[in-house]
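Predicting holo structure, magnesium ion bound.
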Amino acid sequence: MARVFAVVNQKGGVGKTTTAVNLASAFAASERSTLLVDLDPQANATSAFAGYTAARHVYDAIIGRCVMKEVVQPTELAYLHLVPSGRDLYGAEIELVSAFSRERRIERGLADLRDAYDLVLIDCPPSLGLLTINALTAADSVIIPLQCEYYALEGLAGLLETVDLVRDQLNPSLALEGILLTMEDKRNNLCRQVEREVRAHFGDRVFRTAIPRNVRLSEAPSHGKPVILYDIHSKGAVSYLRLAEELLARTGLERSAAAPLLPGVPPPGAPPAASAEAEPGEGAAGGPAPTEEIRALDVTAPMPGGEDE
Ligand code: ATP
Ligand code: MG
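Done. Tokens:
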């Protein structure tokens, strides 16, 4: 059964999508079969992978036009699959207002996919609306990216209250996996101060790994690639690989055998093969994970220097 993480913060631009895309890719690179669910109508996690103009996406599964399995797409990483999003999803919050069990659409959609993956990551929109509630209801735990800046903690109390509310009423086993400091700049006094305060206040609920501000992380999506395929030696790539290691160690997730086949989608780890649903040139062939290069990387070594913004 996959462990499901929701990447949540109602504040915009704090690094949710960057974290969801690159952490999912780091899991996949370490040969854990991983599913990334884009639950944001902005579809930034979808466009971070080149060429996804899928006719059907997560919205179709949410409103019951198809099952979630039918919208799963392969990516350039063999162990990573994607449930893409699109602008239709903007309408879902309104359309579902009077719908039966509207908070459980993602949970139910993922129910018959959980056996096929080791890990599922859900990228949430910047709101605490119905889509985020759906993610929290489906998740085992929550990852909260927090930008190292003055207003970092603003809204965090409300977010933690929402997590408590969902735990009380919809998902009793929902846990706080951890707070992730993002866009860290060690040269900036304010950033260091925010980091100290967050760590003092939240203790071991803050991941040891912080994500540095790194220009490669912001460039990678415009090349349609996660950062490990764009520049694996960058600080950004190394920090997400470290975060994946920290999470896997913390959750005690064992390496599993190849996941069962999903109809229509090459199994994680399969040799490159064009997807039946892929358009020509869609970049949807499952290539091998860059595991050799990653094994050669010492993610415990000091960060490479010289490329901070
Ligand atoms: P939204 O709330 O709109 O969904 P978000 O929380 O998903 O935003 P991202 O889209 O991940 O945030 O990041 C916002 C911007 O900051 C993007 O342009 C992204 O490339 C950039 N960014 C994120 N993390 C970093 C980082 N560690 N270093 C440099 N730039 C970053
Ligand atoms: Mg986002």
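Residues 16-17, 40, 44 surround magnesium ion (ligand 2) (CB under 6 Å).
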